[in-house]
Amino acid sequence: MGKTIAEKIIQEHLVSGEMVTGEDIGLHIDQTLTQDATGTMAYIEFEAMGIDQVKTELSVAYIDHNTLQSGFMNADDHRYIQSVAAKHGIRFSRPGNGICHQVHYERFGIPGKTLIGSDSHTPTGGGLGMLAMGAGGMDVAVAMGGGEYHIPMPRMIKVELKGKLRPYVSGKDIILKVLEILSVKGGVGAIVEYGGEGVKSLSVPERCTITNMGAELGATTSIFPSDEVTRAFLKAQGRESDYRPLASDPDAEYAETYTVDLSQLEPLAACPHSPDNVKPVKELKGMKIDQICIGSCTNSSLADMLKVANILKGHKVADNVSLSISPGSRQVYSMLAETGALTVLIDSGARILECACGPCIGMGFSPNSEGVSLRTFNRNFLGRSGTKDAKVYLVSPETAAASAVAGVFTDPSDLADEKIEETFDVTMPEHFRINDSGIIMPLPPEKAAEAEVLKGPNIKAFPETRPLEDNIDAQLVLKVGDNITTDHIMPAGSRVLPYRSNIPKMSEFCFEVVDDKFPERARKAGKGIIVGGSNYGQGSSREHAALVPLYLGIRAVVVKSFARIHKANLVNAGILPLTFRNPEDYNLLEQGMELKLSNVHQGLHENKIMLQAGDKEIPLDVDLSDRQKDMLMAGGLLDYTKKNSLN
Ligand code: MIC
Ligand code: SF4
């Protein structure tokens, strides 16, 4: 039987397990990346493993999330990461050098390699033909130490692209269409592979927009073939030698296949508060806008920025709109300067921000009360912008720029007049400007031994763990509904991000958007259980959404279904993830009930555990690999690795 692209890469990197859908597989990881908001924890965990030099082909530590530096905390975190990276063989991408995913595919990504990153948008690298996956910080630490990365073998989904996009429709509209078809749950447990005639008309940055937002499908990752377009991109980056062609076999088999006709696509928008709440822009036309943000790891490439500049050229940003633009990397920024496009952006009245995540992670730029904000980003979860009653719409750079000029929601196809080519067709340079001054190389191993690791007072120890108890008596401290995101569990933004290495302080913000009394209640209860609906833990890979509940005494999370990375993070933290055998039993449970899980050890073994709530008995399922069960018994991944070799 023929193989898909992902199956070929998995086969080349398979260390343990069998490639049977749903079975646990262990993969050798070639490259890792971290960003600062998850990186501090990942390096604290890496240090706890006592390994001198990383064992990967390449590991990069990026600083792109917490670049605000209000107070000493972020700067201390940056200094810690820089010092730990220098000591252990990890390259360090300085603040201002760009957003991790953008810089990584420009400078480091290689077709056919495996990459894991402590950020859920790591699949961006799939646009280059990499098998790139988001993971918890602890999993990245293990991979840096040479350990395998474990996932359930995904099923394969094919998205066949036919036809060619019209000029004012772009990669963002394609992925919004796929989100409309599959929803935020449709990709769970799957790898989404793009194929068909339409692929060759898409540039690498456009492909990366699509694979980036595959995270919002809940997919393990998304991947494109590596073809002549990939070669040309790598060549323009001075890295043609990294090129390797990759395609699926003609008789490869897919569990599901969908077709998107590019020639029929129109500009789309994801409406509040979910990336799959998709509508055509023409239905939103005329809605008044307060703010527009262009950038993020989804849409901050040179091509995106040049299109924006073309649309803004000769115009002013409407008086009622505040427009921010964050170029994705120093390379993009310097090329905007070189081509003169930066002057156009500045002259339009846009606010040019640093090359970083910025507004995407709520680092400033929160909209006004009840504000309407159009963003070229990938997430519009309630409250993520920092303004709880704001309405965030996710759109393409073309829609964002056209709307910035008009001051109201505008369909960029309305600009498709005689100047259509000038406006929408941008030619990519044959050679990108290459300046890696923002990357600091690690110390040579002989100097690394004496190098000091610099930890500031905000960097606190890892929360206490314990081996799994056989009987758990705990209070139902929180009951939530479907599609709870890790932004609900552990919000980000400028108030909270400075404490990413201080779990006790972070715990004050846990579940704030849902119920701000939760931390106090959980602390009082001592031991707690959380109950939730389906797709619990979707979104960000932040392991803080597991470490903070661990700190607050949470022993188990019982839900209808989990998102992949969060479930793995719960296990890594030593918290039991359980699912209802009969989803309707969710209705029997009420917040405040005293719950009992008995004979947990045996239940773990038999894949079923009984939950007692008063006189009710509720059967729960255990869906975990043997390795995950051992990890839970030990008290989480760190305790497990202390006992076992890194596998
Ligand atoms: C996000 O987009 O939510 C983040 C911030 O990049 C996160 C990581 C984090 O919480 O630090 C992600 O996507 O994993
Ligand atoms: Fe940064 Fe936003 Fe991308 Fe997350 S989604 S890595 S916060 S730009």
From TrEMBL:
GO cellular component assignments: cytosol
UniProt domain Aconitase/3-isopropylmalate dehydratase large subunit alpha/beta/alpha: residue ranges: 7-407
Gene3D superfamilies given in the database record: Aconitase, domain 3 (3.30.499.10), Aconitase, domain 4 (3.20.19.10)
Enzyme class: lyase
Keyword vocabulary terms for this entry: Iron, Iron-sulfur, Lyase, Metal-binding
Pfam families associated with the record: Aconitase (PF00330), Aconitase_C (PF00694)
CDD domains (UniProt xref): AcnA_Bact_Swivel
Aconitase A/isopropylmalate dehydratase small subunit swivel domain mapped to chain residues: 512-582
EC number: 4.2.1.3
Tree of life domain: Bacteria
InterPro entries registered for this protein in UniProt: Acnase/IPM_dHydase_lsu_aba_1/3 (IPR015931), Acoase/IPM_deHydtase_lsu_aba (IPR001030), Aconitase/3IPM_dehydase_swvl (IPR015928), Aconitase/IPM_isomerase (IPR050926), Aconitase_4Fe-4S_BS (IPR018136), Aconitase_4Fe-4S_dom (IPR036008), Aconitase_put (IPR006250), AconitaseA/IPMdHydase_ssu_swvl (IPR000573)
Gene Ontology MF annotations: 4 iron, 4 sulfur cluster binding; aconitate hydratase activity; metal ion binding
GO BP annotations, alphabetical order: tricarboxylic acid cycle
Cofactor: [4Fe-4S] cluster
Subunit record text: Monomer.
Protein family according to the UniProt entry: Belongs to the aconitase/IPM isomerase family.
NCBIfam families linked: acon_putative, PRK00402.1, PRK07229.1
Protein name: Aconitate hydratase
